[in-house]
Amino acid sequence: MRGTKVASRYRLVEVIGRGGMGEVWRAEDLQEGHPVALKLITVGEDGAVREATFRREARVAQRLAHPHVVAVHDHGTTDVGGRPALFLAMDLVDGQPLSAFTTGPLPIGITLAWAAQISQALHAAHQAGIVHRDIKPSNVLIDHHQRAARLCDFGIARLADATHHTLTATGAPIGTPTYMSPEQARGDKDVGAPSDLYSLGCLIHELLTGAAPFTGSGWHVLHQHLHEAPAALSTLRPGIPHDLEHLVLALLDKNPARRPTAAETLHRLTQLACAPGAAPTATPHRRPTAPTVVHTPDTAGCRGVGPRPTAVWAGTVTGAALAGELAWTTIVPSPWPVALGTLAGLLLGTLYLLDPPHPPHTGELRITTAGLFTALLLAFGTAVVLLVAHPAMWWAALATGVVGGPVLVACSSAVRHTVQRLLHRPAHRADLAASAGALHTTALLLAAGDFGLSGFTMLAAGLFLWPATALITAVITSRRT
């Protein structure tokens, strides 16, 4: 077939890959004068089904235009060797599939860079209503410079808004078992974007440890996806950053609703890549004769990729909410509620703008500098208010000043962990939400004091209000940013 013309435009040069959907050739575009990758699918007895699958692939792929997605330029039908065939003309990526690099664990920095680029591609696909449904190393191409990862082969992808249509039998799983989500393993018809994130979690696990989370063959692997928990990454590769291990486990959650989105995954990977020590220390490529430059996200802009807009938005929301809480629930005269709310919002936003995200390997961190300052300020303020309002209770004010700080720091750490585990937020963002919750709780407890509630009742209310307001803040700021 070498030298054969396809659609009077493409000349076949050499086979560069084979798969379940056909062959991929290096070809020359005679009209444009540059090489392309040409996917050829021979139409056999199941021609109607294969052609429908192919046309769907072409239609889906042509809707995507993204630097980390292999672009599709042309498609149609042709005759190859006297037999009817379908063709798909795509960008020719000079490189190797990611599967060529999965013979062992890769450096963390390289894994973060490639995983972030795949997350970008998935985010673009999901925004366009497209679910890939077959994320695996062989469907990711790495260019010969090893700078860019590009997602390809939407051969079994489908539009998320066309769940009524499928070319597979009901209850029949479709995908690759090693990277298949639990909902795919069950044969669910409403497989959505979270399925791609589960598969991405399997892929990241393999890049970090050299093996997918579940191995075996056939239904044994599917059973593991459905019923077994993956082993902790830290037991397979000591030294894995805590936040990275937490992200992979979140992606591998059996419940699709609890998995982070592609955008959230990208943000967390970028934060991890920006942390000190995340840069690659070794190259994974299989060509020892040529040096490799591996691209990682630009750390110069890392501080602004998430923490900065989140801090500004959280400060704005918190300031406005505090002003309203003080105005509606206390006897503080106007314009003091607005002034106090504005001051608190400015303080919160400024502290977290000046306090950059901490490295992911600081697993013992319980509170940021900004969170610590907020907790100590509240403890000191409570002691002063108590001393001014009830001078005879100077002993209580002194005890609050001495013990209140450490207690609030411990509570803030507990609230931060609650936000992290329930909403899967990065540590810095969870700490910001915990500090905002502390300010909200203080304002609401001031209001409760006007109603003559007992100290025990106010303490119980505070233990409920703090995590509740922190969770609300985390949800609002994440949706906004």
Give the N-terminus to C-terminus distance in angstroms. 53 Å
Tell me the radius of gyration.
Answer: 27 Å
CATH-derived architecture of the largest domain: Orthogonal Bundle
Class of the largest domain in CATH?
A: Mainly Alpha
Instruction: Report mean pLDDT, rounded to a whole number.
Output: 76
Task: Kindly describe this structure.
By secondary structure, the chain is α+β, with helices and mostly antiparallel strands. It has 3 domains: 5-90, Phosphorylase Kinase, domain 1, CATH 3.30.200; 96-299, Transferase(Phosphotransferase) domain 1 (Transferase(Phosphotransferase), domain 1), CATH 1.10.510.10; 306-480, no CATH class. Helices cover 49% and strands 12% of the residues. The chain is built from 14 helices and 11 strands. It has helices at 47-62, 108-127, 182-185, 193-209, 218-227, 233-236, 242-251, 262-274, 307-329, 336-354, 369-389, 394-423, 427-449, 455-480, and strands at 5-6, 10-19, 22-29, 34-42, 72-80, 83-90, 95-97, 130-131, 140-143, 149-151, 158-159. The strands form 3 sheets. It has a 6-stranded antiparallel beta sheet, with helices on one face. Strand 5 and strand 6 form a beta hairpin. Helix 11 (369-389) runs antiparallel to helix 12. The model is unreliable at 159-172, 285-306 and 357-365 (pLDDT under 50).
